[in-house]
Write a structure and sequence with these properties.
105 residues, alpha+beta, two-stranded antiparallel ribbon
């Protein structure tokens, strides 16, 4: 894993990923997911700082991003990072918003 200096997005090097799910377990927001086709860990790269899903979902009133809290240390203030929700969660949320019910994905 690395951090994009421009956007702050956490990036996965798929060549180094062994599909062990350790990054998923370690992430407080459970943001990474295994891509169904490649079985490699995947995290939204925020479209180089211009997330297209945010533009599209803004029109429907749906927020496809999640705010994850991190602790800085004992007794210190929390800080937050914004990540894209996993695709399954986005699909379920949009289907509920549009159709009024949760659809199976």
């Amino acid at each position: 894993l690395s951090v994009d200096e421009k956007t702050g997005a956490v990036l996965v090097d798929s060549k180094l990923c062994i599909s062990g799910r350790k990054c998923i377990e370690a992430c407080p927001g459970r943001v990474p997911f295994l891509h169904p086709a490649t079985r490699k860990s995947t995290i939204c790269d925020l479209c180089n700082g211009d997330p297209q899903c945010v533009k599209a979902c803004r029109e429907t009133g749906f927020n496809c991003l999640s705010l994850v809290q991190y602790e800085k240390g004992q007794g210190e203030a929390l800080y937050h990072r914004v990540y894209a929700k996993p695709p399954k969660n986005i699909t379920e949320g949009l289907s509920k918003l549009i159709f009024g019910e949760k659809m199976e994905v």
